[in-house]
Amino acid sequence: MNRVGAVVALLAVVGVGLALSGAFAGVADEPRADDVADDRLIEVDGDYRLWPYTSRSRTVEGRTLAINVVFHADADATRAAIEGDPGTDWEETPPDEAAATAGDDDQLREVVGRDWRDARGSLRYSYVEGPDGGAWLAETFELHDGRYLGVRDHLRAYESPDGAYTAIQAHEEYYDWFRLRHTVPDIDAPATRLEDEFVESSRATDVRREYRGIDGGRSDGWLSVIELAATAALAGALLRRRTREAAVDLLGRLRTDARRHAAAATLGVALGAVLVGVRVAGVALETAFPAVSPKAIAAPLYLVLAAGLPALVARRAPRSDPAAAAAAVVVGLGAGFLADFAALGVTVPPDLIVHRVALLAALAVVAIGRATADRPVAVAGLSAWAVGLALPLADLI
């Protein structure tokens, strides 16, 4: 394929990819409604039936994720059971922060076990209906395990008005540097992890699954139900190992032609290193400076990605063969994307896979344009990169 054909093909990938990214995101699971239908409420305990979802607003049309765990206890007992030993160094997170404070000892504990902390995120509501009618509930408390700029499990808790139960929406979320916000890849695994902490524990008398036919909100229809012991033995921290798979030999393919295409190989390694380095730096800075808002840390690091990656391609590509430069971008930055997701241990949503492929294609076009000194081609690639960054920031992806 000649150079013009290759550029046209890559730009087509960018265009199709960005279009598909928007198409994959955001189809509602059910028609909008003004009121909570009676047949959507489930019996839990006490006098209040539960609408087993969360919502961005006090309406059904704002529905987001499904409730997936229920504790037959009030909020105070539930939170104490989740947090574990009250003698551990738990700290309250200010409302304007989304990350928790960690000391030197906590950093080690994060490696070997779960580290639940008070979390603050976007406000979500749930709904209950009792003898006096229905009521929308704001979160009673939020907890998280993990880092704001990395990956974490996030819990939103809603206590029934009579204190008979506490409903939990548990989800896994990771910070997406190209969306500048959290993305939720899964709700089943974090619910299972929370449930596992109470299996064969003296803090619970019963842990079971109940099929409630919950439809939508990423639910599989099942609800984890946990009965707390009347006198919970809250001794020791709640530690549970989180296994993280590291990507191995992702950059191995660059070594084959390293001597022949040293500049291109260096470019690929540098792109992957910058992407992974931003994630590592974000989590490290968040740990080192707990008083600083994670969003303040993320802002300059995002500029490293948004401006630094195309600048690196523009600087290094002229020293390379056009095909090798494009391949270095795709392999190097693609390996960086894979390493980042593998280290986080999350499942990548399909729309974001397409979006990342589009970004790879855009930078590959920049590399071809710079390697061949073809300014219009380079500008076209940079324009596609800018569009690829703008769409998620505009909440279109």
Fold topology:
Blueprint lengths: L2 H22 L17 E4 L2 E8 L7 E4 L2 E3 L3 H9 L20 H9 L3 E3 L6 E6 L2 E6 L2 E6 L4 E9 L6 E11 L4 E6 L1 H9 L7 E8 L10 E7 L24 H4 L5 H27 L5 H23 L5 H23 L5 H22 L3 H19 L4
Parallel strand pairs: 4-13
Antiparallel strand pairs: 1-2, 2-3, 2-6, 4-10, 5-8, 6-7, 8-9, 9-10, 10-11, 12-13
Account of the protein in words:
The protein has 397 residues and is of the alpha+beta class. Helix content is 42%, strand content 20%. The chain contains ten helices and 13 strands. Helix 6 packs antiparallel against helix 7, helix 6 runs parallel beside helix 8 (322-344) and helix 9 packs antiparallel against helix 10. The longest helix has 27 residues, at 262-288. The protein is elongated, with a radius of gyration of 24 Å. The two termini are 32 Å apart.
